[in-house]
Design a protein that fits this description.
The chain has about 160 residues and is α/β, with parallel strands linked by helices. It has a single domain, classed as Flavodoxin domain (Rossmann fold, 3-Layer(aba) Sandwich), CATH 3.40.50. It is about 45% helix and about 25% strand. It has six helices and seven strands, in the order βαβαββαβαββαα. It has helices at about 15-30, 45-50, 65-80, 100-115, 130-135, 140-160; strands spanning about 1-10, 35-40, 55-60, 65, 90-95, 115, 120-125. Strands 1, 2, 3, 4, 5, 6 and 7 form a seven-stranded mixed sheet that branches. It is globular and about 45 Å long.
Length: about 160
C-alpha cells in the first residue's frame, strides 16, 4: 500500500478544511493508497520517510508559510535529505489575498528535497483583509473544497497507477 502524507497547519480552520477535502478525495480514489492527514506539530521525519507522496497545506501568514509548517520542515528536512528524491508532491495555500510567497517557500524546500511537483500550487483566497476578517473562523467555499479533493484524488491516482 502506498502512502500519501498530507501535512497541514491551520489557525482559522480554512487550511484544515482544504487538507481534509484532499484526504477525502485521495481516500475515495484508490484502495491501494492510504491518505495520512497530520497536523504539522504531529508530523516528523519518520512520517516523511515513510510516505510515497506529499501534500503540504499551509495558511499564508504575513506573506510566509505558517510558523508551525516551517517548524515541521525544520525538524524533518535534514533527516529526509537525499532519502526521498523524486517523490511527488503538491502544495495548497489558504491566503487572504495572495498566497504565492508561501507556495514559493514550500517549493524551495521541495527543490532541496528533490521532490517532483505534480501540480501548480492550489491557492484559495479568502479575501480576508481586516484584522477581524483575518482572525475569524473561515468557511471554504464548496467549489474550492472540490478543487482540493481533486488534487488529493490526482495524487492518489498517480500513486496507484505508478505514474509518479
Amino acid at each position: 500500500m502506498k502512502t500519501l502524507l498530507i501535512v497541514y497547519h491551520s489557525m482559522t480552520d480554512g487550511t484544515r478544511q482544504m487538507a481534509a477535502a484532499a484526504a477525502a478525495g485521495a481516500g475515495g480514489e484508490a484502495a491501494s493508497v492510504r491518505a495520512t492527514l497530520l497536523h504539522a506539530s504531529a508530523a516528523g521525519p519518520a512520517d516523511v520517510l515513510g510516505a510515497d507522496a506529499y501534500l503540504f497545506a499551509t495558511p499564508e501568514n504575513l506573506a510566509s508559510m505558517s510558523g508551525l509548517m516551517k517548524d515541521f520542515f525544520d525538524r524533518s528536512y535534514y533527516a529526509a535529505l537525499d532519502r526521498i528524491n523524486g517523490r511527488p508532491y503538491a502544495t495548497m495555500v489558504c491566503a487572504g489575498s495572495d498566497g504565492r510567497n508561501a507556495a514559493r517557500q514550500i517549493e524551495r524546500i521541495a527543490t532541496g528535497w528533490r521532490l517532483k511537483p505534480i501540480a501548480e500550487p492550489l491557492i484559495v483566497c479568502t479575501q480576508a483583509q481586516t484584522p477581524k476578517q483575518i482572525l475569524r473562523t473561515k468557511q471554504i467555499a464548496p467549489q474550492d473544497l472540490a478543487r482540493c479533493a481533486e488534487l488529493g484524488a490526482a495524487l492518489a491516482a498517480g500513486l496507484s497507477l505508478g505514474v509518479f
